[in-house]
Amino acid sequence: MLEPFMTQSIVGRAQKKGLAEIHIHNLRDYTKDKHRRVDDYPFGGFAGMVMQCQPIDDCISALTSEREYDEIIYTSPDGKQFDQPMANELSLKKNIIILCGHYKGIDHRIREHLITKEVSIGDFVLTGGELAAAVMTDAVVRVIPGVIGDDQSALSDCFQDNLLAAPIYTRPADYKGWKVPEILLSGNEAKIKEWEFNQSVERTRTLRPDLIDE
Ligand code: ADE
Question: Hey, which of 82, 100, 123, 126 would you mutate to test ligand 1's pocket, going by the most ligand atoms within 8 Å of its Cβ?
């Protein structure tokens, strides 16, 4: 699931440029079970399956014996909500492990003893943590300087200053009578900047008032 994502688009380009390095590890490669199982029934007779300690512990041990990691993140709906400040912060780290949860979850002892950060990408339940890891990777990699052609463009993204981005337009200036705001054609840089800021504030106030309260 993750392989094609990591080799394409922004994340693929960042790797080709040598600005990021991403490795995908299959926990089945670390199991000692002859059927390559990584899950088992939960104690207490609860429903679902649980990922076992041993393959996860062995995988993390193998990785940490090769290099130091700043964070060992577990993707889970009960984790801290992922947002732009977290993406920015993670982009400054050198090495990160993202452990993708599956089934009912992972044995809680892994969370207690090995995980340094638990992250959710929203209040909904995914079948597995892979999509959450892909979302986080994209958001983190795109803010690494040099990944996006124009350095400014990641900084002017929505949320970088708790504001939504202003509307954006391209040619033609008049399409079927749908006109681009006059100010953008004026060439007056200061006025355009002011318009952009006012639009950002207005859109944030209307669409995401919670961001302004923050
Ligand atoms: N795994 C399952 N649901 C998730 C979510 N919302 N965020 C992160 N990881 C998850």
Answer: 126
